[in-house]
Amino acid sequence: MVIKVNDQEINMTLLNQYMNGNSKDLSTYFNGVEPFIDLIITSPPYWDMKDYGGIEEQIGFKQNYENYLNDIKTIFKAIYKLSKHTATLYVNVDTMKRNGKLIRLPDDIARVLEEVGWSHQDTIIWDKVKTLPWSRKGQTRNVFEYILMFTKGDSKDYKYYVDRIKTVDDLMEWWVDYPERYSPEGKVPANIWQYVIPTQGSWGAKKDFGDEEFKHACPFPPELMARLILLSSDENDVVFDPFAGTGILLATAKQLNRKFLGFDTNPEYKKVFEKVTIPLVEGDWLRIEENLREQDNKRKIFREVIYKLRVLKVPKALIKKTRNLHNKGKINIKNNFLMVFALEEKLNKAQLQVKNKEFLGKVNYIFVWEDNNTIAQATEIINDILAKSPFTKYGLLIQPLVISKDELRSFVNDVNMLDFPLYSYTRGRTNSFSQEINIRSFMKLIGTTTYYQFYDNDIPPIISNIKIDAEDYEEIERIEYQKR
Ligand SMILES: C[S@@+](CC[C@H](N)C(=O)[O-])C[C@H]1O[C@@H](n2cnc3c(N)ncnc32)[C@H](O)[C@@H]1O
Question: Which end of the chain is more exposed for a tag (fewer CB within 10 A), N or C?
Answer without folding.
Answer: C
